[in-house]
Design goal:
260 residues; mainly beta; 5-stranded antiparallel β-sheet
Length: 260
């Protein structure tokens, strides 16, 4: 960093070293004024965004978009910092470099990070019904296939349930407080498929989406989102009665009718 007139901006960027292609990941940037005077009109600019990388969202949102995003942070007093967080995704395999630049009236700093995007070695499927009845238990299967040429070990699964979707244990007793279900698969051989079955129950009508996160020991992870629609169970059709017999009767004469 460069220090002029008592202002010293230090920009840092925290990113994963390795991510899975087509899977969202998070990054964090921090800018610190380590000087003795306030840094005024601080702006962070996206210097380099690779063609195959997309920023899905940021907090705070950028002030300008287009060829390069900018975040206008205003004044940063001496000794204080400001943070940015990003959600991003990369579409192709390879090593990509992401760059940010911070500038104030008298000072600037730049940071660059290289991110490696690789193919996730597991094919992940979430198999379940698209339509379910309220309050009725139904199965969901989590299917993992090792598409690599190496054994995969220590595979962590985490199933995140939304409000209104509950896990049911084998005894058919609800676990309403269990919004996250965690599992560990010790090993999957190349070409092998492993399944884990859950039993769920919907208590709220409408679209309900649950997310399965699969993480490997090296930090590589994949998220699979699956949605279903829950509704009241249809009522049985009303019984239709038909009365068979004469339209006219004579007083004092017995008449027979049949109900169907």
């Amino acid at each position: 960093s460069i220090r002029w007139d008592g202002v010293a901006l230090t920009l840092s960027l925290d990113t994963p070293e390795q991510v899975a292609v087509d899977q969202p990941f998070s990054m964090q940037a921090s800018i610190v004024n380590t000087g003795s005077r306030p840094a005024r009109n601080v702006v962070i600019t996206e210097d380099l965004l690779p063609a195959s990388m997309r920023i899905l969202a940021s907090q705070p949102a950028p002030d300008t978009t287009g060829t390069s995003r900018q975040w206008k942070l205003g004044e940063i007093p001496a000794g204080e910092s400001r943070n940015l967080s990003f959600d991003a995704i990369i579409d192709t395999e390879g090593d990509l470099q992401y760059q940010l630049r911070a500038e104030s009236r008298y000072n600037s700093d730049r940071v660059a990070k290289t991110i490696r995007a690789v193919h996730f070695p597991l094919d992940v499927l979430v198999l379940g019904p698209a339509e379910v009845n309220l309050q009725e238990a139904f199965p969901v299967r989590l299917r993992l296939t090792n598409s690599s040429t190496s054994e995969l070990t220590g595979i962590q699964l985490s199933e995140q349930l939304p409000a209104g979707l509950h896990h049911v244990d084998p005894g058919l007793e609800d676990e309403p407080a269990a919004t996250t279900l965690d599992f560990l698969i010790s090993s999957i051989q190349p070409g092998e498929t492993v399944e884990k079955q859950l039993t769920l129950r919907a208590s709220i009508a409408g679209e309900l989406c649950h997310v399965l996160t699969v993480q490997l020991p090296n930090g590589l992870r994949s998220r699979t989102r699956s949605c279903l629609h829950a509704s009241e169970k249809p009522l049985p059709l009303d019984l239709q009665l038909q009365l068979l017999g004469p339209d006219r009767v004579t007083s004092g004469n017995p008449v027979s009718y049949q109900v169907r």
